[in-house]
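Most newcomers find our protein records easier to grasp once they have seen one. A learned vocabulary of local backbone shapes supplies the integers on the structure line. An example says more than a description, so a record of this kind follows:
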Amino acid sequence: MQATDGVRVYEPAACLADFRRLCIGVLPATEEAHHMLVTFLGTAASEGYPNAFCACGNCREARSLGGSSLRKRSSALIDGELLIDLGPDLMAAAQIHATPLDRIRYCLQTHHHEDHLDPAHFLSRSAYCGVTTAPVLEFYASSPSLARIAAALQRHAPDGALTGPEAEQKLNVRIRQVASGQTFEVGPYRVTSIAATHAPEAMLFLIEREGRRLFYATDTGPLAEDAWRMLAAASGPIHAVALDHTFGDGERSTGHLNADQFIEQVTRMRAMGLLAGDARVYAHHLAHHSNPSHPALTRRATARGYDVAYDGLSVLV
């Protein structure tokens, strides 16, 4: 474990015992019990890292190094019960990182793109695949995400409707349609959905529990002014940020961030007083063609004052 002010960073092996105790509700009560345990299940952009079909220098080095340089497509887990993005690599992540997903009660879906949403998981966690003990999943998503799910699961949802009682019972889910600009309760969490600069109706999430806040901000380009206003209106400072770093040392973009744009967003957050003094900022959603292997990227990031997420990283926020 490494401690930096109020945010503690746990290596996967070091935190596994505590994480398992948390998952079965017996984590000893401490002064940190109110902190959120955030686990990065995947940290790559849409093609994974290394890209299985690619022989570029970055992909070759990642294969050689292994470990933290191997990245699945992006998703995250909070406290073993709140999932961010029902992504295509969840099964592999659960196996590789010894992180069962059988306690998930809530899911926040950022957007409908294939690297973030795999509708087949609705079947995998239902009686259709022999699962009878999983809790009902409260699934929060935009209209385009729900439309994509309905199209994929048409024969399992009467008339393509996911919100009717028959479909919800068959799929063990309760659908909650949300849009950017809303604040809503998700179990013990208070969530504000903020418009991303990405696909239509893509969302970023400011997640709060008992005074601790995580800003989960991928996929996105430079934030729009409305997004900045919503962040400024938050009830308190942000303690951790997971921010798009897709294009790294590549060109500037309007739908993702490169390293310079990443720094510009973080600089503005600090200038506006949005970040707690001990806040940690993590580069997330990394593309193989624009970001080097994890050790090299970490050296660059450290020199510029931020951290790099990797698959299996768990942090107390």
